[in-house]
Amino acid sequence: MWIPRGVEPRLRRSAKTRPVVLLTGARQTGKTSTFLRLFPKYRFVSLDLPTEAEQAEKEPGSFLNRNPPPVIIDEVQYAPGLFRHLKVVVDADRARNGQFLLTGSQKFTLMRSVSDSLAGRADIVELETLALAEIREALPQTTLETAIVRGGFPELYSNPDIDAVAFYNSYLATYLERDVRSLANVGSLRDFERFLRACALRSANLLNKADLARDVGISPSTANQWLSMLEASGQIVLLEPWFSNRTRSIVKSPKLYLADTGLLCALLNIRSAEALRLSPAAGAVWETFVFAQLRYRERLAARSGSLFFWRDRTRELDFVVDVGGRLELFEAKWTELPSAGDIVNLAFVSNLPGNSRVASGGVICRAPNAYPVPGGFRALPVTDI
Q1: What count of Cα atoms within 13 Å lies in the side-chain half-sphere of residue 148?
Q2: How far apart are the first and last CA of the chain?
Q3: For the chain, how long is the longest CA-to-CA vector?
Q4: Could you tell me if 318 and 329 are in contact, meaning their C-beta atoms sit under 8 angstroms apart?
């Protein structure tokens, strides 16, 4: 079963207007399948095959002669030397769009290669795991708790018989053996796995690198390097704080989120909807899930750098969406009936001097329908954002 992705119209448009389209994202998010579905007439070559990767890296001219455009090149990060030759081919026929469709799972490595060789020639699109809207469009009967625990990897929904626990165990093993080893020389994969689990325990919390390093038993510099690796491979997302004076945010800590709640629940040993409801981590898992839905919404609207959180010494507001200076304020609460205490920080931030720009605010919760709450705010089901 094919699950349509919200990013598909943009990919079609990009292939008609840009010579190169680069689709990035974590492993198993559906990058290759999406390109093959949208562009069935394109030639396809995967650099997952060592022989193909070796020729693309060492003999890029011969590789491109054998695989002329239009072509989909899968896992292109395995041949960074190919990018300069792509530039030569693109510039030889610059008016021809949709020449090369590239996929890759290591965003930072790819971005360096693109900025060095394909600047101004490539449209870069990120594909994350399925959003709730995409899941519900294909499988309307999917419950909210099931979507949270099962996560958003497309294979888990295209084939519902797959055991999610086995899937994530395999995914984690593959990720450690392939992406981690290729991104850096990690001495102990066991220590790195412990580090990833420690990040899961801190999802939806302020990032404290010193505490994280101490708890895992590694140096702060190693923790910083491993965080970059997790971010590069699409496993975590860091959310920056919002300030009216943006330069102040440079010295403030971000919040840490796992990118997908299925992997988060697997790392926390939450294996069912019932286990989620009983878990003391339910609030953090819910906030992580809401963050993923907000990221999906902002990507569909083609807005980058619009999503933040707010914090001072004593208070924190989960999410601030800044669109052209107009603000949307959100709290994420694992409840069906938000209480007066759940809107305290919403009201406080709304009433700060200079915050007349607030357009709306609400508590994103598990209520089945939206309804007003005190202070001019609304209780919002996650489907309403």
Answers
A1: 26
A2: 27
A3: 67
A4: no
Q: Which residues contact 170 (CB under 8 A, 6 or more apart)?
A: none
Sheet holding 205-206, edge to edge: 205-206, 255-258, 236-239
Token digits of residue 220: 């702060």
Q: Specify which residues 22 forms β-bridges with.
A: 102, 124
Residues of the chain with pLDDT under 70: 107-109, 111, 113, 115, 181-187, 244-251, 353-356
Exposure string over 230-250, b if 16+ CB within 10 A, otherwise e: bbbbbbbbebbbbbeeeeeee
Structural domains of the chain in order of their starting residue, each with its CATH number: 8-126 (3.40.50.300), 132-234+256-281 (no CATH), 312-384 (no CATH)
State CA 102 to chain mean position distance: 18
Q: Which amino acid is at 342?
A: D
- Give the 3-state secondary structure of residue 117: helix
3-class secondary structure, 286 = helix
Could you tell me if residue 28 is left (phi over 0), alpha (psi between -120 and 50 degrees) or otherwise beta? left
**What is the tens place of the pLDDT at every residue in 204-248?**
999 999 999 999 999 998 899 899 889 988 999 999 998 866 445
Indicate the pTM of the whole model. 0.92
Task: With beta carbons less than 8 A apart as the criterion, state whether 73 and 99 touch.
Answer: no
As a whole number of angstroms, the distance between CA 218 and CA 220 comes to: 7
d(CA 52, CA 32): 16
The confidence score (pLDDT) of residue 381 equals 96
Cβ-count burial of 329 within 10 angstroms (0-12 exposed, 13-18 middle, 19+ buried)?
buried
